[in-house]
From TrEMBL:
The family this protein is said to belong to: Belongs to the ribulose-phosphate 3-epimerase family.
Function (record text): Catalyzes the reversible epimerization of D-ribulose 5-phosphate to D-xylulose 5-phosphate.
Classification via SUPFAM superfamilies: Ribulose-phoshate binding barrel
Xref: PANTHER family: RIBULOSE-5-PHOSPHATE-3-EPIMERASE
Descriptive protein name: Ribulose-phosphate 3-epimerase
Positions of a divalent metal cation binding: H36, D38, H69, D178
Reactions this protein catalyses: D-ribulose 5-phosphate = D-xylulose 5-phosphate
Pathway(s) it belongs to: Carbohydrate degradation
Signal peptide residue numbers: none
Keyword Isomerase set for record: yes
InterPro entries: Aldolase_TIM, Ribul_P_3_epim, Ribul_P_3_epim-like, RibuloseP-bd_barrel
Alphabetized CDD domains for the sequence: RPE
Length: 230
């Protein structure tokens, strides 16, 4: 089952509650599975966004669970506060974490899903033994820092290798892709084995963001189905 997580990085930051509601489901139609919240500290990436006060407010403004992607230094120090602020899933970067196993366990113990992200140049192989500690693995398909960048096709082999490792160990963890995911790239990601799709500009750049979410989900599910048959 494909999940679609709109990234509010491409939304209007002065109207976040309203922007969240634009991707909620209605009686007849499913909406976003999670709301993807990009936290940037101007150190790990050259951009600055928001912190725990905004997450706390968003939590009260929408029923969609929050998927917080921390593009920050010292996640060991800061990530637990995002669980307390109301995140249902917290993603830290492998490149920034001092003790990823301890941090993942702390996030889980506080009651959220624990997730780890890999920048494009970071391989999955050194982390094979850590996978059981995680609920989700995020393969970045752009260099983190900005929305609206072009999808990096060269990441498809890493998505495939990660899917193989997950299946080899019989794990349930989700495989997320983030960056440049759109109607023209989501099928390649799904065929490679991703099952959680972050989309910023492809959702919030659309006239009807909720319809864009549904169209992306359908494309991903059809591509995953044909991948399995093939
Ligand atoms: C990039 C962020 C992404 C970003 C994706 O560093 O992590 O979540 O919002 O935006 P699009 O979908 O426009 O590439
Ligand atoms: Zn992100």
């Amino acid at each position: 089952m494909a999940q679609i997580n709109p990234s509010i990085l491409s939304a209007d930051f002065a109207r976040l509650a309203e922007e969240a509601r634009r991707v909620e489901g209605t009686d007849g139609a499913a909406g976003a599975d999670w709301l993807h919240v990009d936290v940037m500290d101007n150190h790990f990436v050259p951009n600055l966004t928001l912190g725990t006060p905004v997450v706390e407010s968003l939590r009260k403004a929408t029923d969609i669970p929050l998927d917080c992607h921390l593009m920050i230094e010292e996640p060991d120090r800061w990530a637990p506060a995002y669980v307390e602020a109301g995140a249902g899933s917290v993603t830290f970067h492998a490149e920034a974490a001092a003790a990823p196993v301890r941090l993942a366990r702390e996030i889980r113990a506080k009651g959220a899903r624990a997730s780890m992200a890999l920048k494009p140049a970071t391989p999955i192989e050194p982390y094979e033994d850590l996978l059981p500690e995680l609920d989700m693995l995020l393969v970045m398909t752009v260099e983190p820092g900005f929305g609206g960048q072009a999808f990096l096709d060269i990441m498809l082999p890493k998505i495939r290798r990660t899917r193989q490792l997950i299946d080899k160990h019989g794990l349930q963890l989700w495989l997320q892709v983030d960056g440049g995911v759109s109607a023209s790239t989501i099928e390649r990601c799904a065929e490679a084995g991703a099952d959680v799709f972050v989309a910023g500009s492809a959702v919030y750049g659309a006239d009807d963001p909720a319809a864009a979410v549904r169209a992306l989900r359908q494309q991903a599910e059809e591509a995953a189905g044909s991948g399995r048959e093939g």
